[in-house]
Amino acid sequence: MSEEIIGKIKSEIESNKVILFMKGTPEAPQCGFSAATVQILKGYPYPFASVDVLSNPDVRATLPKYSNWPTFPQLFIDGELIGGCDIVHELNSSGELEQKLKTAFAQ
Amino acid sequence: MMKSEDVHKILSHAFESAEITVQDLTGGMDHFSVIVMWDGFKGKSLIQQHQMVNQSLKETLEDGRIHALQIKTVAR
Prior knowledge:
The complex is a heterodimer. By secondary structure, chain A is α+β, with helices and mostly antiparallel strands. Chain A has one domain (3-106): Glutaredoxin, CATH 3.40.30. Chain A has helices at 3-14, 32-42, 57-67, 85-94, 96-106, and strands at 18-22, 49-52, 74-77, 80-83. A 4-stranded mixed sheet of chain A has the order 2-1-3-4. In chain A, α1 packs across α3 (57-67) and α2 (32-42) runs parallel beside α4. Chain B is 36% helix and 26% strand. Chain B has a 3-stranded mixed sheet with strand order 1-2-3. The chains are: A alpha+beta, B alpha+beta. The interface between A and B is small, with 10 and 8 residues.
């Protein structure tokens, strides 16, 4: 894991309240799980950044080791890994996702 | 490929006295859905709970015996 890529990942995570590392872009997701996660986020009035790991192979290779999560998409809120599609889905239905988003944008 | 019982054995070893369900999703013995209800998950975020399950099956995920793993965890 090269320091440079980790630095790039860290700065992306730290400089965005909400960031989704996904396959494709919110406008053109290239994977069903990424598309489903984007749909959930679009249901909220909060902006979110995204990184297309398909066009950033270095991030695609390094992020799973850095975050200790093997798959994509990966959603971070306020610097904390929230999870992949299943977890974002589950937190969305429990209301916890909205809570985390509100807290992040309340500061 | 591996048998559901073997997945169950690994999980019950890692999560003592947890209630564990393992389901082979496709019959191909490498796409599993697991449910782990374990008191030790209390206080842990959902992602941490899933990471713990992934960690306990790390070897079988890395050598491909398990190709896809759907995880449900309950802190109880």
